[in-house]
Amino acid sequence: MAFIKKKERSRERFSLLLLDLEEYYFEQHTAYQLTSSNASQKRKIRGSLKICSKSIIFEPEQITDPILKIPLRDCKQIEAVEENDRNPFNESKPVGLSIACQQVYFIKESNVVGPYRIERGNTSFFFQLEVSRKTEDVVQTLLQLHRASCLDKLGDQTAMIAANLQSRLARTSFDKNSFQSVSEKPHMECEAEMVTPLVTNPGHVCITDQNLYFQPLSGYPEQVVQIMLHNVRRIYKRRHGLRPLGLEVFCTENDLCSDIYLKFYNTKDRDELYYYIATFLENHMVEHTAESYMLQWQRGHISNYQYLLHLNNLADRSCNDLSQYPVFPWVIADYTSAELDLLNPASFRDLSKPVGALSKERLERLLARYRDMPDPKFMFGSHYSSPGYVLFYLVRVAPEYMLCLQNGRYDHADRMFNSIAETWKNCLEGQLTSKS
User: Fold this and answer.
1) Residue 90 in contact with residue 101, Cβ under 8 Å?
2) Last residue within a domain, chosen from 136, 169, 202
3) I want to staple 269 with a disulfide (CB 3.0 to 4.6 A). Which of 190, 210, 229, 327 is the partner?
């Protein structure tokens, strides 16, 4: 799988991909979900209650039980339940959290990755925190996030959640007990987000004279990300969301995926970290340009695949950003012959033209439509470099990414990838997009 890193923990049921796009994971608490199907059957399910900016997620310890996701915008009531106060379980210490909602998602039922099951209608959930004194704080946090989720304007909602995030970051700092050596000297610390496909994880960055660290605000993943500076081979400044805020670090020369991609909240912090690492490495790494990679490719020192990856890196593309995913050109044009004749020019596409101009009939239709358009005019209605097109090709090896992008569903079967030949034909004949 192209953008799944080798260090990703595939056995974990919960991942940040269960969150909505542009949602943050703030904190987690060990808790018990109390269920009662009838008077004689009561069940206490131990798990982790996760507080996110747009939802509440409960991950049971028992892997056969589904993960529950309750969107905050669908909650009708969130409150702390005291002793004998509407608590159906009447236990010795019944302090807990009661949530009434109109919609809930059931995810990974029987531990199987598949479309989410959605139940609509009035439903109530009761959770008991293992540390009961935190119940009131959790309720207040959820009520604040619930108010944000119910705002009519998306901009106001985003601003309120961002303010909550910045407040949390300001109240915390990097834990220097995570240093690998007591002799390390910290150079700088700042706030940033670790970027992976469709996900950003806020936290604190710290760089010392020996290591680069990232500590997530939420405690997920549990281990602090550590990169030894003497292992760094390449670093790139990146645009993230078309803003100069990204930094990507590679510790191997030919890996497709980097060891970390960071998005900073201001360009100054990004640049300071970049130049500190670059200065540290100036005697240990060779600066590569497009020309140097071309020479290595011509001499057979690197493969076609590696050469294209390097060019994509220099062009500001990254496997961690699905809107700037590496581009590989269509080269072969013959997908029908039983054997490919590499000596026949017709077996290859014309690389002197973009894909959108390879079919004369299609180009004429597009130009006619362009001439009849009011301003602003455009040739293609969408761009090949987008998460939807990337996951079109990768859905079978990374289904959870498609479920994240499609709000718990797969795309319509007729629109999903099933054939290289059919995809190539659609690239030549389709009218709205140009997939390079």
Assistant:
1) no
2) 169
3) 190
Span 314-354, pLDDT tens digits: 998 999 999 899 999 999 999 999 999 999 999 999 999 98
Q: Clarify whether residues 250 and 390 are in a common domain.
A: no
Q: Are 122 and 76 in contact (CB under 8 A)?
A: yes
Please tell me the total count of domains within the chain.
3
242-251: per-residue pLDDT in tens?
Answer: 899 999 999 9
Q: Average pLDDT over the chain, rounded to whole?
A: 88
- Distance between CA 319 and CA 6 in Å, rounded? 13
Q: Are residues 157 and 198 in the same domain?
A: no
Q: What is the pLDDT of residues 153-174, one digit of tens each?
A: 888 999 999 999 999 999 999 9
- Span 266-295, mean pLDDT? 86
CA torsion sign for 99, 105, 107, 110 is positive
Q: Supply 268's token pair.
A: 């100054």
Q: 3-class DSSP state for residue 2?
A: coil
* 311, 355: one domain: no
- Cβ proximity of 325 and 316 under 8 Å: no
Are 185 and 309 in a shared domain? yes
User: Is residue 14, in this structure, part of any structural domain at all?
Assistant: no
Q: pTM for the complete prediction?
A: 0.86
Q: Is residue 365 part of a domain?
A: yes
Domain end among 113, 143, 169: 169
Can you point out the beta strands (E) in 63-138? 67-71, 75-81, 96-107, 117-129
Q: What are phi and psi of 281, to 5 degrees?
A: -100, -5
The CA distance from 393 to 407, in Å, is 18
- Domain membership flag for residue 335: no
pLDDT at 39 exceeding the cut of 60: no
Domain limits at 360?
Answer: 345-429
Residues contacting residue 158 through CB under 8 Å, at least 6 positions apart: 22
Distance CA 233, CA 284 (A): 8
What pLDDT, in 10s, does the model give residues 282-318?
755 556 789 999 999 999 999 999 999 999 989 989 9
Pick the closest to residue 324 from 333, 308, 335, 313 (CA basis): 313
* 375 and 295 within one domain: no
Tokens 């995809």 label which residue?
423
